[in-house]
Amino acid sequence: MGLGAHIAEGLKPVVDLVYPPRCPLCGDAIADQGGVCSACWGDLVIPGEPSCKTCGRPFGSDQMDEEALCAPCMADSPKHSGIVAATVYNDASRKLILTFKHGGKISLVGLLGRLLAARLPDPEEGGDAPPLLIPVPLHRWRLWQRGFNQSGLLAGQLAKQGKGELLVDGLVRRKRTPSLGGLGAKERRMTLSGAIAIRESRRAAIKGRDVILVDDVLTSGATSDACVSVLLKAGARSVTIACFARVVDSEFDASLNRMAATGA
């Protein structure tokens, strides 16, 4: 344990006295900072099996074969190498994301990062270079307004958990785009056309590497698809998408409308 960790551990009782640990979802007292109470923990839905072999979308039936593909992947084979989600997007995960992004509770990144890290494999020791952890970028105006990129903070947590090598500025968002809520697939692609690019100074670092693209919420997949495309064109060997919450088909339209209204 380093000096910083020893200091943090020593200050923990003081912090708990001044700021008693509270569940970020319901406000009830809990044992430690950065957690949720047992009741709210039960409201978080962890993606289960069986799921699509290609994208990891959970199936509603237990009768599906482990080699089965979901309808979207059968209709249009994705360019990414899989999607890993810590939770299914619902009221509980939505509240955590809103509190994290807009409620000033940046400390929640530890909880969100741990839940996502638990779903990712550890890089093989002695194998190839570990994957690059690259966050979905924010436009500079949005970054200045918010003060941080929530996907960048999540990627940093995954790096601390030993899931890869952080490359926080591998991608850049060239133009500010409006909310994609309410737009069709073609309109979303047009809106994002040319919006995301490789940062030229990082192109050589990306070439030939496996990449984990980190985001907070995966909805339609339009933004992540744009990121995947430019990463593969830059020479990335593969791109896996990792997100804290994933919208499943049954909640897709309602979730897009809520996100457009709240900015989540």
Mean pLDDT: 83
Alpha-carbon Rg, integer: 19 Å
Proportion of residues in extended strands: 5-15%
**Distance between the amino and carboxyl termini:** 36 Å
Instruction: Name the shape in a single word.
Output: globular
Tell me the structural class: alpha/beta
The residue fraction in helices comes out at: 25-40%
Number of strands: 7
Sequence of secondary-structure elements: HHHEHHEHHEEHEHEHEH
Query: Count of helical segments?
Result: 11
Low-pLDDT stretches are 1-18, 250-257
Largest sheet: 5 strands, parallel
Give me the side-by-side strand order of the main sheet: 1-7-6-2-3
List keywords for this structure.
two-stranded antiparallel ribbon; alpha/beta; five-stranded parallel sheet; 264 residues
Structural account:
The protein is of the alpha/beta class and 264 residues long. It is 38% helix and 14% strand. It has helices at residues 3-18, 38-41, 71-75, 91-102, 109-117, 140-146, 150-160, 185-192, 203-206, 222-233, 252-262; strands at residues 83-88, 132-135, 165-166, 171-173, 196-198, 210-218, 238-246. The protein has a five-stranded parallel β-sheet. The chain has a two-stranded antiparallel sheet with strand order 4-5. Helix 5 (109-117) crosses helix 7 (150-160). The model is unreliable at 1-18 and 250-257 (pLDDT under 50).
